[in-house]
Amino acid sequence: MKVLVVNCGSSSIKYQLVNMNDESVLAKGLVERIGLDGSVLTHQPEGKDKVIINADISDHSIGIKLVIEALTDAKHGVIASMKEIAAVGHRIVHGGEKFADSVLITPDVMKALEECIEMAPLHNPPNIMGVNACSKIMPGVPQVAVFDTAFHQTMPKEAFLYAIPYEAYEKYGVRRYGFHGTSHKFVSQQVAELMGKKLADLRIITCHLGNGSSIAAIKNGKCIDTSMGFTPLDGLVMGTRSGGIDPAILPFLMKKEKMTAEQIDNYLNKKSGVLGISGVSSDFRDIEEAANAGNERAALALDMFAYRVRKYVGSYVAAIGGVDVIVFTAGLGENSITMREKICNGLEYLGTRIDPVKNNIRGKAQEISADGSEVKIFVIPTNEELVIARDTKTICGNLA
Ligand code: AMP
């Protein structure tokens, strides 16, 4: 069975064609600048040269059509015809409270996705466009929605509610939803497997540290709390996002700087985080380089980032009554040896000891805690596409 995994942004389509017989990736690629000048498809078939196709890609349907053409092309294709694609799995950012698991997309599901637009105005509309584009170009092929929010739906009410009038939750669904759910789910399952333990017996803290960062407290395989909230702005310090701040800062700055609601939203989402503190970049590689060259604000940004992660780890230990293993994943978590060290130095009180030699790795699944460390530490590369492909296979496999 071959599954096409699709992740649509407002002007982009990321895709992977996965052979579910052995979970190998047959091809992957990216359509960029949809609806803009210079739109392009970069197609990477497994074991063959990368192909760059410049074309006028005015909408997502044309983008999907080009992806199918690339996948079935006589020279750089990997399948003989579109008929080989048994199902499509879509990454959908927000599933609200309606979806605690992945689902087969039906007209009713589409209606529910439309209702979630208000909560994810930047993300859900392009996700929906992707589903519509696939329906148009590949009619009859079953499609599955895999939600960033679903894994966190097990959070108890005391963890997901904000202490504002209850009516805000009832009327508008204002609550903590959490994001990066597929990643937290994947690495928690992987770490249990690597440790040779049952998920049901573990207390896990998963740190997804990338441009967007979030952390989750997982007990018996279920998410108990997570740092992103109603939107992906809450929680940890991020590349350009502030993470949690005193909400009273918003009206204060809006008055002082004469900012509109949209402007303050942009300020907190795009101009803050390690970019706002360092003034250097949102990319941790640039900030680490600047800090090494003596830039004090770059060093401060890294310290603030690590401090916030440590603080969350401490609070999540309290939330789940201890911890057996801490997992690092995503761009920074998988690759930054120094950031992992910075975070773990200071967690020794938990019985956590990082091994500097084992920690000297990038992008590889491995234990990095020292022998005898009571709490284990692991690096696990995330693979959200594989989770989407697996869920799609499970749901569509049951259709036959
Ligand atoms: P993601 O959002 O998961 O793709 O992660 C992107 C972030 O990971 C960027 O800020 C990168 O700077 C960071 N990153 C990737 N590789 C490294 C590395 N070798 N050292 C430090 N940061 C890295």
TrEMBL record:
It comes from the Bacteria. Pathway: Metabolic intermediate biosynthesis; acetyl-CoA biosynthesis; acetyl-CoA from acetate: step 1/2. Transmembrane segments: none annotated. The record marks H180, R241 as: Transition state stabilizer. Keywords: ATP-binding, Cytoplasm, Kinase, Magnesium, Metal-binding, Nucleotide-binding, Transferase. The active site is at D148. Substrate binds at R91. It catalyses: acetate + ATP = acetyl phosphate + ADP. InterPro entries: Ac/propionate_kinase, Aliphatic_acid_kin_short-chain, Aliphatic_acid_kinase_CS, ATPase_NBD. Its cofactor is Mg(2+); Mn(2+). GO terms for cellular component: cytoplasm. CDD domains: ASKHA_NBD_AcK_PK (cd24010). PROSITE patterns: ACETATE_KINASE_1, ACETATE_KINASE_2. The keyword Lipid metabolism does not apply. Its EC number is 2.7.2.1. Mg(2+) binds at N7, E384. ATP binds at K14, H208, L209, G210, N211, G212, D283, F284, R285, G331, L332, G333, E334, N335. One of its GO terms (molecular function) is magnesium ion binding. It is found in: Cytoplasm. Belongs to the acetokinase family. Catalyzes the formation of acetyl phosphate from acetate and ATP. Can also catalyze the reverse reaction. This is Acetate kinase. It comes from Sporomusa ovata. The lineage of its organism: Bacteria, Bacillati, Bacillota, Negativicutes, Selenomonadales.
